Amino acid sequence: MEAARARARRRRLGREGAGAPLDGHLVRVGFLVVLPGIVALLLALSTPGALPRPALRPLFDTEAASVLASTLALEYPTRIPGTPEASEATRWYRETVAGLGLPAVEDSWTEDIPDLGSVQLTNLVSVIPGKSDDAIVVVAHRDNGGTRHPEGDNTSGTAGLIELARSFAPQPSGPSPVPQHTLVFLSTDGGAYGGAGAARFARTSSLAGSVVASVVLDRIELPGRPRLAVASDAVGTSPRILVSTATARVREWVGEDPLLPNVATQLFDLGTPFADAEQGRLLGNGIPAVTLTATGSVAPVAGGVTGTFPGSERMGQMGRAAEALVDSLDASVATSTRARDGLFLPGRTVGGWAVRLTLVLLVVPIALGASDLLVRTRRRALPFRAALRALRRRLLVWTGGAFLIGVGALIGAFPTGADLPLPAFTTTVSQPSVVRLVLLAAAFAALWLGGRQQLAPRRLVSDDERTAGMVVAFVLLLGLAIALALLKPYALVFVLPALYTWPWIPLDGRRWQGIALFSLGLLGPLAALGLLAAQVGISLAVAPLYAAALITVGYVSLWTVAGLVVFAASAAQFGALAFGRYAPYADGLEPPPPGLLRSSVARTARALRRR
Predict the structure, then answer these.
(1) Residues 38-94: pLDDT tens digits?
(2) Of 31, 83, 106, 328, whose CB neighbour count within 10 A is largest?
(3) How many angstroms separate the first and last alpha carbons of the chain?
(4) With the C-alpha atoms ordered 292, 296, 300, 305, is the resulting torsion angle positive or negative?
(5) Within 10 A of 338 (CB to CB), how many other CB atoms are there?
(6) In what order do the strands lie in the sheet with 342-345?
(7) What domains are defined for the chain?
(8) Quick check: helix, strand or coil at residue 110?
(9) H/E element holding 499?
(10) Contact between residue 121 and residue 174 where contact means Cβ atoms under 8 Å apart
């Protein structure tokens, strides 16, 4: 009996010692709370149905679309927004659809586009009235980033849009069937620079409020596997019925299922909403949309105007799939296409409510461990004041780092302009200003060194001091997780790895184990950068610059920046503990000596008094 009591006493002391601050048994018991979330995930699995296949065969003419694409590519190869060639391409499109009996209404406005400045953009809208005022919109952008940036070109999408308009336009002879819905054919401008035209339509058009579905055509000539883009600028995805119907029509006319983003990418897009295709602008403004596109390399245009456009066969397949999709949507009058959040799996979907519930419940076990830890550490009267001051100093340093990103926008290191996602060929990524970035890095290094002045270890740090430093950083990280659980549950996917690894960093000298756990906790933000780089088509090395540029143009909100600052400050304190470089603020002196800022102010005041 005495031996059992001694072992229990040693376990309690071990939990309160420097080796294992958290009670692992309590955390494991807390996982019982997660079981309802797992059950909810299983119950939320469903097989989405598709709208019926249209009775009539699509009329999409591959040869005619190939001629249109070749004409646009050869006569107007550079259609950068605001240039004379872009204006000529606008005139060409307007005259081409007018020849089909469809007048194109212009919507011109001025937009501040990164790398281009303030330029005039023009959307062209053609409407075929239907029996219902509810509208189905087909969208394609006609601009590009110039001949040097073929990844921004959408010649095939514009040709497909015109050919689809011909398929549904009133016939010159004989009765023309009236569609069930009003059909809108939208040629946007600024699509290669973040989808400015789609955002303009969604925010200002009188038709936007009546749109029940949108189909975006983007690079449909590419030879690789078809792909659907479903991400939104807000928390949400394309409607399930729209995605499943698009999948069925592509399978029928292309011969293979289109690719959807993997689960990790979908979680990233929901956690930090990001969409580089035009459907993101529409979904972000409440308009149901999906993008039909494809994968593969870019092929140059060869031959004359009447020659074969590279990828014309695939363009014809995708064009017929798009026409069949519009026919299915038009025939289904009562089908709801309201956008919701959720995950698309192979052949299945998961309701967003179940995913959010599971992510929130995953915070509970760690929260239970934290409450037990706080009770035990209060009994030990740990030196929390110095630990809190150290964490406050790190918060100030990273807040200064966020401020320097804004300074970078002022000096031209990062772009400013419309709150749109930037293209892969933006100057910040393709030709960064090395001198300005070095200046910003030097300023942050000076800021970090100034903050480090009172944080550098100058003596042997006690176990209680290290435990206090971990507890306050852990509480800050847990507070961030709770705030995300209440406001942005999907963003927990970036915080949960740190929440489940950093509190177990040993404080008793096991350096490599601590470094390994600290590295595992960084998987969340590192995975986010990797997925962002893969989506945009940039290297991982420049992904941080691209993310900073998204902040300066306003696409990433200030609340997200504040969350990143809190996470970075907590990570810095945990990192110091993992690498054995943690020390309490000012070596734990009470009251602490004045810091660099207060010392500078005091010296300046004394100098002024002497004068």
Answers:
(1) 999 999 888 888 999 998 899 999 999 999 999 999 999 999 999 999 999 999 999
(2) 328
(3) 78
(4) negative
(5) 11
(6) 45-46, 348-351, 342-345
(7) 62-340 (3.40.630.10), 384-602 (no CATH)
(8) strand
(9) helix 492-501
(10) no
